[in-house]
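#random but structural
TW: two for the price of one
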Amino acid sequence: MNTLAEENYLKAIYHLSHQADNVSTNQIAAALNTKAASVTDMLKKLADKQLINYTPYQGVTLTTAGEKIALLIIRKHRLWEYFLVEKLNFKWDQVHDMAEELEHISSKELIDR
């Protein structure tokens, strides 16, 4: 299982990869509003888990496994937004931040409670 931070990094890399083949540490830092040194530490962890291809100073790409996780998180985010609007009657401009938190909940966590 991945941490909330790891999932956010994978999601950010996925979105940024639509702008360039290799995503730079600085691009990720800007997207996540963090320092490049913190990004480097996380990239090493994600590379150890084989979720990204990372070469220092050359950028990063998602592996197939990393892309699968990123797409799953994005899908869950969109489903939460839809649920909040359609079933709980929130407005579309109100749901993004809530969906951002809810997207990281796994079914296993709900069962274990």
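TW: number two ↓
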Amino acid sequence: SAKLSVNDIDLIIFATSTPDYYAPGSGCLLQEKMGFPKIGALDIRMQCSGFIYGLSIAEQYIKSGTYENILVVGSEVQSTALDLSDNGRDTAVIFADGAGAAILSSTDENQGILSMKLRSEGKFAKELWVESPSSSNGFPRMTKNDLDKGKHFLKMNGQTVFKLAVKYFPEIILESLDSINMSIENIDLLIPHQANIRIIQMVQKKLGLNDDRVFSNIEKYGNTTAASIPIAICEAYDQGKIKKGDIVALAAFGSGFAWGSTIIKW
């Protein structure tokens, strides 16, 4: 789509919460599988906010003039890591597999990322987490007792996640807009992380956006975590919902808790 080849890419940024291995990072594996030259490969583990954080890193490398074309990937294989018993019903019914990618390039045109805001609040880390394996356990990182108790499965306090997501989503979007002297009226399309349809609907209501200005595809794929925003961008673009010159807002909230928003002029 970008009319580029692997030889044009200067850096790989790979966002995932489900890496192939603890080591090495998935970005290095992607570099080898696709035949990229000996470029840098950076993994980031920011879970649902991974793609937004990845964009923020790519933006700084491009602004500094270090690189011209950066591949930002969000990819998840969550189906192999979910508790499919009744104990895991809060997570297994919504988390899913998927992958999406974008290329950020330097340009002289009046377009691109206009603002970027990132936040975190680590005191809520255990409200959405995978407890084991863990280096903090000492040796070994995982025990039979951990497995028996299902500590290796994703656990989520859905009520806490919902309460704070519907609070912080609108706040960070408005903060991003305010930093560039824009308001919600300037937004042509909001593409949120596809966390939960109720969260998306509540954020839409709080921001006063009609259905035509919010993109959602969670009913087709579920929550693909770091992959959900790039998948949604691709579909929105293919459906003609994003046109050159449009102001597009991206936002995500998830484990950490970590969240962020960016405003883009397409």
